[in-house]
Amino acid sequence: MEYNEKKVWSYIELSLIVISIFSFSYFLDATSSYFENGEEEFETEIYETSESNLFLMGKNLVSFAQKKLNKPIFGIVSAEEFVGCCEESIDGIACATTISSFCAPDALFAENLICTSASFCQKGCCYDENAGIYDKNVLESQCSASWDADPNCNFPAADFGCCVLGSSTQFETYGQCVIDTEEFALGDGVVDWQGDLSETQCLQIPFANEKGACVLEGGSCTVNTLEACSSIGGDFASGYLCTSPSLDTICVPTTETMCIEGLYGVYFQDSCGNEGNIYDSSKVNDQFYWNEMVPIESSCNPNSENGNANDPSCGNCNLFIGGICSNAIIDDFDVDYGTNYCRDVSCEFEGEQYENGESFCQYDGKIGEGDDVVGSRHWKYVCNQGDMQLEPCEDYRNEICVQQNTEVDGEVIYRNANCIPNNWRACVTINSEAESEEELIDDCNSAVNCEITDIAIADHFAYPVCTPKYPGGFDTRDERYQETTTLLCGKATQKCTVYQEEKFFGGCKYAANEACLGSGFAEQMNDFCTALGDCGGAANYIGDFEKNYNVNGAPDLSSAWIAKLTKYAEPIAGQYAHVEDYSEYLQAAGVAPFGGVNEHDLIDDISTISQGVGGIGAAVGMAFASTTSVTIGPGVAAAYNAVLGTSLEAGTFTTASSTAAFSGAAIGAAIGAYAGLFLAEELGLSPFGTLLMAVGGALVGGAIGYTIMVTGLLGIGPIGWAIIIIGVVLMIIGAFFGGSDCDPIDVSFECNPWQPESGGDKCEECNSDPGKPCSKYRCETLGAGCQFLNYDADSEDYYICANSCQNDPSPPQLEPQLGLISPGLSYSDVTDSGFKIVSEESDGCVNAYTNLQFGITTEEPSLCKVDVTQKEFDEMSYNMGGNFYLYNHTMFFPVPDPSHGVSQGIDWDGNLEFFVKCQDSCGHETSNFYTVEMCVNQGEDVFAPSITQMVPESGSLVSFDLDETQVLITTNELATCKWDVSDKEYSSMVNEFVCEDSFGLQSSPYGYVCEGPVPTANDVNNFFIRCGDQPWLVGTSNESDRNFMSVGEEYILKKPDKKITIDSILPSADFEVSTEITSVDLQVQTSGGGLYHYCSYSFSGYDSMIPFFETGVETLHIQPALNLQSSEWTIYTECHDELNDVVQGETSFEIIYDDNIPQIARVWQEAGEIFIVTEEPADCRYATTSCSFDFENATAAGTDLMHVIDADLGRTHYVRCSDEFGNAPQGCSVSVVAI
Amino acid sequence: MVKKEITPLRKICLKKENSGRTKARCTPLANARGQVAIFVMVGIVIVVSILLFFFLQKKIDISTFEVENPQSFIRSCVTDSIEDSETILLANGGDIVPQHTIPYYDEKYNYLCYQADYYLQCYNTHPQLEKNVEAQLLQNTQEHVENCFNLLEEEYNSRGFSISSGDLDYSVDILPGSIDVLLFKNIVISRGDSSEEYRNFDFEVLSPIYDLIEISRLIVNDESQFCNFEYTGYMLLYPQYSISRIDFERSKLYNVEHRDSLKSFKFAVRSCAFPPGI
C-alpha cells in the first residue's frame, strides 16, 4: 500500500469522528423512543397495561448545550459558576470549555458558548510565505507570522511538490524549495520544483537521474549527477565510477563498504569515499566491477526472497522484502568485507514472520458481536525494520484495530492494520432516531461498527435494536461518567409482562409472552446489556465474570452460559476486525470536512433521578404488590358476556301456558341468573363455575317466577321443585369450580454498569504482560481495590496496578449526608446505626406524595444498597446512588400514601423503614444494617391531586403543520384526568386522558402520567384540565370519596406565526478558487417556526443527513470548513424546529479551479514608460536584477489589466504578475528591455 | 557567504592544533649542517642562554605554544553548547522549558497540538516551529557563546597577548542536516607589533533537527486536520526515520527518530480525544 493510499485512513478516521460527534450530540435524545414505540404498539394491539421503564425525558433543547458545557474538563461545576469558552485557562490551555474561575484573569471568556463558536478561538492558517511554511489550525493569537482564516491552508503556495536539489529531492512547498536551493547553493540558483509529481514519484527521481563520475582538477573525483557536476566545474563521465582507470583519477578500489542515505543497499567505497557498485564479495578484486556502474538488477542476488538479509557476501538489499544497509559492527554481524551488510528488517512475533512495514492486530479476547470483554484493548503491531513496534489503540475501546489481508492463491502475503475510532456511540443513538423498524434496521446496517441485535424472547417481546459490534468501555470511577453510564446500561433494563387468562374450568394459562419466563430472557437481555458497553454480566479480560444485573421472574443465567461468557476473554485465533465500507461516510462528510461536536444535546439530569425513582419506586411497589387486589382483565369480561348470553338463551327456551307465566319465568330466570353471577363473582369462581352458578340461579329464579305468576308462592309443584333442586345443585357444583388469580406476571431485567469484584488480589495481573502495558482502565477492571499508579515509589516502577486494600482493614462508616434533604425535613436521632427523617411540622411525620430526597455519606468510596427488608448484601435489590463506589449515596423517591395503601389492601401503618448496607472497594461490608426510619402522615385522603408537570408546558408553541398535539400530564398521586375548552366540574368534562400507571408504580420521576391528544388547529388553543384521585374507587360505593381539583389548570398551546422556513443557503452560486480542494462554509438561514432550529445536510439526498456543526442556537446554521473538491456540487439541507416541523432545501453550485497564471496580452513602450496588458486582472511587479526577485518588495506596476512601468532605458525589466488567487509564474511573466 | 580568513597563528610554529580536524606541521629550525663545531657550540650557548633567560624571568609560558586557533577554540566551545541545547530541544518537543507537557515514565512530552475538549481536533500551539526552535536555541546558547569569547580572551591574555573585540553578532540557522552557527565578532589579537584580526567564526553542527521538525510539522498538520498521521506508511517511504506513537491518557506521544544519528524529537498531541464513556 502506498503512502497516499494509506492516507485514506486519515479521512476514514475523520469521518468516523464526525459521525461519532453527532451521534454523541443526540445521544441524549436516546430516550429510546424506538423501544417505547415498540411497546406502545404492543400495548394498543394486545393489552392496555404494559409498562415501559424507559422514561420519557424532557426535550428542553435549550438546556442541552448548557448541559454539555456542564461537563467541562475540569470536573464538577458549582451552580454559581458560569460555563463557557475560555481563551486561555489558568493552566495555560488555549480555548477550553471550562468554568469562569478557571479562566486566566486577562483571558476572554464567552459564557455559554462552545469554543468552536467563539471568535477568539477561530482556527486559521499560520504561514510564512517566504519560507514556504504553512501550519494548519492555529489561533491567530498564537501565530507570529501571517494568519488566514482558512484553517486547512488551502493556498496554492501550500501545495507540496518535488524539489530537486542536485542528486537528492525533497517533497516540500515551493517556498521551502527556494530556501533549500539557496542554502545548498546549487547550480545557478534556479529552483527546480515540480508541483505535478507525487511524493512517491519525487522519491524516485534520484534513482532516475543519470549519475556518473565527476572528475575534478588534480584527479580528484566524486560520483554525482550531471547538473551537480556542472555546478562544481567537473568533467562528467556518465555511468562511470571514479575508480575507472580510463578516468585517471586518484581514487582506487578498496574493500570498504558504505550505506547511502535514501538508498537501501550496501555499496563498495573507493579510496576517495565515493560509492562504488553494490557490495559483492566475489568482485572485490574485479577491476571490471570498479569500472562502470552496474544496475541493481544486475548486481548480486537481485531476486533474493529475503532481500539478501543477513548475507555476508552480497549487499543488494531490498527493504520491502527483507534487508537494509546497516552497520555490521554495531549489529555484531560477520561480513566478508567492509563494515556493512543487509540487516534483516523482517520481524518475528509468536512464531510468525512479518515483513517490514507489515502490521497486524492483536486482541485480549473475542471481538465483535458485542462480545468484547471488559478492560480489553485492541493492539496494533508494526514491523519496523526488524523491530516489532506496539501501538495500543485508544483505551476504553475508543479505537478498534482493523486489519486487511492481501492474499494470493488463498495465502496471506501481507497484512495491514490500523487503529481507527470506534463508532459505538452512533449505534446507540440510531435507536432513538429511527422512526420505524425498517428505518432502524437500514440505518444500523449502513452505520459502520453497528449491527442489529434481534431481541426475540417472546411473541410480544421481540424487537430489533442497534448495538455496537465493539462496545465501548467506561470509566466508572469518574463521577462525570457515572450518570451517563447508568443511563446507557439502563437501555437494557426492560420488563416483559407475561399475560395470563383463566382456563374454563379454573386455573390460569399464559396468553402472551410466556417465553419471558424461560432461561432465554436473562440470556438475551444480558447479551443486549453487554453489547451496550461495560454493562451487565460479563467477564473482564482475565476471565473473571461479574454479575452486574438483576433478573426477576425468570431463571438467572446458567453456569454454562456464564462459562461461555467467560470464554470470551480468550482470543480467537485468526480473528480480526474487518475494514468496513466507509464510502457513505466519506461522501456524506465530503472529502475531508471536519466540524466537531454538535454540542446541543446531552445527558438529561432526569436520567439520574429516574434511576432513583425506578429503584425505590419499585421497592415500595414490590412491598405493596404481594397484597394488591386482583384486577379483572378483559378475558374475564369476555367470559362474563358469554355467560350472560347463555343465560338469556336459556330464558328463551322456557315454556309456559301464558304470557304472564312466561314473563314471570323470564324475569325470575334473569334475576336468578344475575344473582348467580353476583354470587359467582363474590366467590371468585372460574368461568365454568360462574356458568353453573348463573344457570342454577336462572333455573331457581325461573321456577319461582313462573310459580308466582301462575299460582302464587304456594303453588310450586313437583316440577317446580325439581327445577329448583336442579338449579340449587348446579349452583352448589358451580361453587366448587373456584376461579384463579390470573394476574399479569412482570419479568424484569436490570442492566447495571459493570463493576469488578471487590478487593485487589488480582491487580498484579495487569503488570504481568510487558507486551501489553497496564493502563488505568485495565487496572480498574481487575478489582475494585486496584489502583493505577503513575509511579510506585516502592518498586520504582511506572504505571503499576497496585492493591490499595493492604492497608484498609475496616468497613465504611456511614452517616447522613448533611445538607442534602428535601425542604422541610431534617435528619434526627442520628446514631451509628441509622437516623430518622422527620418533618419540621408538629408530628414529625412526612406528608404523603412528598418527593423525598436524602443521602448517606461514607468516609471511603463504597457501594451501598438499600431494601425494605433485611437481606444479605448481595441479595439487596437496589443500589443507592448507582452501581458505583461513591462517597455520597443519594436516594430520591415519592413518599407513598399509607391510607391509600390500606385502602388497596396493604397492611402498612405509615411507618417506613429502609435498611442500608455498604461495602468498600476492598470488600469490607458494614456488619449491621444502617436504618433510615420515617413515618408518613395517615388519615383520610382529603386532598385533590395536583399536576406536577405538563409536557409541553402551558404557553408552549406546537407544530405548525399538525392539528393535534400529544400532551403528557403528570400528577403527584395516582389519578384520572380530563380536559375541556372551558373550566367546569370534573364530571362535566368530556375529554379523558389515558392514565395507565398503577398504584405505587409511577412511570415518571415527576409522578403518575396521563396522556392524550388535544386539538391545536387554532393559533391559540385554550384548555382546562382537572384530575381526580383514587381511581380505584370508580364504580364502587365509595366513589364519592374521590377528591377532584376544584379549579381547572389552564393550559394554553400556540402555533408559531409561520412554519420554519429556509431563507437562504450559501454557497448559492458558482465561484472560482485557486486550489483543487477548498474550504467552504455551508450556511443556512432559517426563520419562523419554533424557538430552536436544527439543520442537517447531505451530499447524497435526504436519507442520510449530518447535523450542522453550529446549529440549534441561532437561526444561522453553519457547517464550517467543508473541504470540497473543485467540481459541481448539490448539497441537501433539512431543518426542523423543536415543534418537529420540517423544511427542506438544496443548493447547487460549481467550484471552479483557477490555476492559470495571468497571461501577458500585450507589451509596448511609449516614451519613458512600458505598458503591459494582462488577460485578467493581476498584480504585476518588477525588478531590474533578475527573474528571481522578491515579489513582496518589488516595484508595483498596477493591479488591474493595464500595468505601467517607468522605463529605465537600456535595462531589462523583469516582470511577474499574480492573479487574485496567487497564481503566478515561478520566474518572470515577461522581461522587457527598455530602449 | 563570509569567507574564512587565513589564521596568522598558523604561521607561528605550533606543535598541532587541538581541534582534531586539521593538523599543521611545524617548520623545523635551521638545519645544522655539521660543518663547524663552533657554530654548534655557539648555538648551544645561545639556546641555553635564552632558556636561562626565560627560566630566570619565570615568564616562560609553554602553553603559549599550545594555544588553539581562535576559530577552532570558539567552534569547539560553542558546539558543546549547541549540542546540549539541541538535545534539550529534541527531548522537549522544541522548547527549552516546555509549558504544557504530559508526563510519561520519567520524561515529559511537550504538547505541540492540544485540544482540551473531547471530539475536536487540536490547535497547533507551536506554529512556525523551526523559527521558534531557532530562537530558543539562540537564546539558550547566547550566554554560553559570549562566555566562549570571554574564555578566548582570557586564554590569550593569559598567554601574553592583548586582545580587543567588538560586539557579538550571533545567530543560528537550522538547515537540512545541520545547524549553521553564524558568529560575527571583530577580534584583534596582538602582541608587540604584530596583530591578527578575526571577524567570522561561522561553522556548522551536523544535526537532523531540521528534518525532524519538518516531520513533526507534517504530523501536527495532519493531526489537527484529520486526527491522525499515517506514520507507518511514512516510515516505508522514508526508512531513515523511525516514528513511534503511543496512545496514552487520550494523548498521542510521538517519537520521531533519525536512525543514523539516533536523535529523537519527542512531542505530544491531544486531538479528537474520546472520553471514557459518554
Helix content of chain A: 10-25%
Report the uncertain regions of chain B.
1-32, 56-66
Uncertain regions spanning at least 5 consecutive residues of chain A: 1-79, 588-657
What structural category do the secondary elements of chain B indicate? alpha+beta
- Alpha-beta classification of chain A: alpha+beta
Query: What's the story with the biggest beta sheet of chain A?
Result: 8 strands, mixed
Helix content of chain B: 25-40%
Mean pLDDT score of chain B:
81
Span from first to last CA of chain B?
60 Å
What is the tally of beta strands of chain B? 11
How many helices of chain A? 20
Strand count, sense and barrel status of the largest sheet of chain B are:
6 strands, mixed
> Measured on Cα atoms, how large is the radius of gyration of chain A?
42 Å
- Output the radius of gyration of chain B: 27 Å
Gross morphology of chain B? elongated
Q: Greatest chain-chain interface?
A: A-B, 102 and 61 residues
What is the CATH topology of the domain at 814-935 in chain A?
Immunoglobulin-like
Oligomeric category: heterodimer
Number of strands of chain A: 67
Keywords, separated by commas or semicolons:
heterodimer; A: 1235 residues; 20 helices; 67 strands; 20% helix; disordered N terminus; B: five-stranded antiparallel sheet; 35% helix
